[in-house]
Design a protein that fits this description.
By secondary structure, this protein is mainly β. The chain has strands spanning 2-4, 10-13, 20-27, 38-45, 49-50, 57-65, 69-76, 79-85, 92-95, 100-104, 110-118, 122-129, 132-138, 143-150, 153-155, 160-161, 166-170, 178-184, 189-197. Pfam families: HutD.
């Protein structure tokens, strides 16, 4: 297991230059925006504007703070859809090529969590977890990310996760998939991301 804290992250400009993003983890390590297989980041959105274009990338977005985002998605030039994403919404999945214009609900700055995977190599699934015990048995995943958005959580190996901490779990040689248990404190909010590689192994 690998464990990152707030001091391990670094911030960089958006691909389209319209803001900044904090990279939490990337695979392979130190890969750039054109080389990553997966990337998890947060971004502070303080004004309306378009999302960056990422060809052959699947994305999932969750709102961590703020009133929310109104996302105008145009998957085909003649079929536009509006999606309002708030802290209570399920994480929203979309293709990185999709033209998206985002507006702020009530003009309030939003902090979001963004997972991206290269679709010809792997897929991902993000879910939000609250307080209580969670037994994770991701049999089809080779890697699992666990991000603590707020509160605290303790893992079955004794590790304590605090707000903004991130852990990476990897498939062991003993059994298929990734298994662990989480004890999340009251008011805790966690995001679990399963990563499944389309080919055997991670190479």
């Amino acid at each position: 297991m690998r464990h990152w804290t707030l001091h391990d992250y670094h911030t960089m400009p958006w691909k389209n230059g319209g803001g900044s993003t904090t990279e939490l983890a990337v695979f392979p390590e130190q890969a750039g925006l054109d080389q990553f297989i997966w990337r998890l980041s947060t971004a502070s959105v303080s004004s309306a504007g378009p999302f960056s274009h990422f060809a052959r990338i699947d994305r999932t977005l969750a709102v961590l703070s703020g009133q929310g985002l109104i996302m105008q998605c145009d998957s085909e030039s003649q079929h536009a859809a509006s999606v309002t994403l708030t802290r209570d919404s399920q994480p929203y999945r979309f293709a990185g090529e999709t033209p998206v214009f985002a507006e702020l609900v009530q003009g309030e700055t939003v902090l979001d969590l963004n997972m991206m995977t290269r679709r010809d190599i792997c897929t991902h699934y993000m879910q939000r977890l609250g307080a209580g015990q969670h037994v994770i048995s991701a049999q089809d995943a080779q890697q699992v990310l666990l991000f603590c958005a707020r509160g605290e959580a303790r893992l079955d190996n004794g590790s304590l996760l605090q707000a903004s901490d991130l852990c990476l779990f990897e498939e062991s040689t003993e059994h298929a998939g990734v298994r662990f248990t989480i004890e999340a404190a009251e008011q805790a909010e966690l995001y679990l991301i399963r990563i499944h590689f389309l080919a055997t192994g991670l190479s």
